[in-house]
Amino acid sequence: MCVKITKAFVFCVSILLINLLQVRCHIPSEITTPANKVEQHCILAETCVHDTIPVCGQMGDQTRTFLDLCDLLEFACDKNQIYVHIDDKEGCPEKKSEVINIQPAI
To answer: What is the pLDDT of residues 72-92, one digit of tens each?
Structure first.
């Protein structure tokens, strides 16, 4: 009886291993890892959906407000300057009216 169980176990493991070897990656073969951060930001910017939630970005000592995360990615791609998203802090992100220079009506 023990021999039958062992043979059945070996058979099941063999079938499992054969099936695992046939599994293919779900990422298409034409997709490669981006060569650098700018290229990575460009790829992400192409599929990003704008949500208009202001974010703060930083590059070195410089901080600035972006309209949203997609804007940060597009800026990096267009200007070849990599800003990273950081937590909000005083003055960043600026209020939306300050970002687009809208003055309140009197």
So the answer is: 999 998 999 888 888 888 878
